[in-house]
Amino acid sequence: xxxxxxxxxxxxxxxxxxxxxxxxxxxxxxxxxxxxxxxxxxxxxxxxxxxxxxxxxxxxxxxxxxxxxxxxxxxxxxxxxxxxxxxxxxxxxxxxxxxxxxxxxxxxxxxxxxxxxxxxxxxxxxxxxxxxxxxxxxxxxxxxxxxxxxxxxxxxxxxxxxxxxxxxxxxxxxxxxxxxxxxxxxxxxxxxxxxxxxxxxxxxxxxxxxxxxxxxxxxxxxxxxx
Length: 226
Ligand SMILES: Nc1ncnc2c1ncn2[C@@H]1O[C@H](COP(=O)(O)OP(=O)(O)OP(=O)(O)O)[C@@H](O)[C@H]1O
Known about the structure:
By secondary structure, this protein is an alpha/beta fold. It has seven helices and ten strands. It has a single domain, classed as Rossmann fold (3-Layer(aba) Sandwich), CATH 3.40.50.300.
């Protein structure tokens, strides 16, 4: 089964205006359940925009997206948000953590709408933090953490709800080689448990990792290798 399937998906900004751009232009790709796929391409080629669409954070301007077999491109924001919380984990390029909140609170955020008690949320946040070696900072406000620590908090938050689909935008960008290897081990372990992973990277350590099944390459909003 395909976890991800897009049919001529386009994302346009400033539609119909002189400054219209199409960072994603009629992209048709598929990713099978359990695959680990790397999304590559030069800066500005549309990788983050495509990742944002695939992770159900935005809707395509045209085309169709089937996520875990569901026609999500036709859904309302409300359904899309619920679907994302139930099934999708996202590691953002710029982390998107909440300042003033602790590591534990940030990691636990995706669990709030899912009906867990505060005790359960704290326990799951601690477990996810331990996986990426950030459990010694659970009660620190994220404002005080280093770039590499913030990246690990962002990864723990993506893992905390045990999602079937994991999207990661440059997940090792701010990590030293030891922590990069650690993150890749976690991703490899998730893959061995049947999770589907799609990530962007410019990091050769990621590109050469044996868990990568396939590379999708983008140029100027178009998929040039699939
Ligand atoms: N909201 C927006 N409005 C207008 N243009 C946008 C918007 N979002 C993205 N773009 C443009 O789309 C293009 C692709 O951006 P995107 O961030 O997807 O590229 P990328 O391949 O992820 O780049 P990088 O490797 O540098 O992160 C860029 O030229 C960007 O300026």
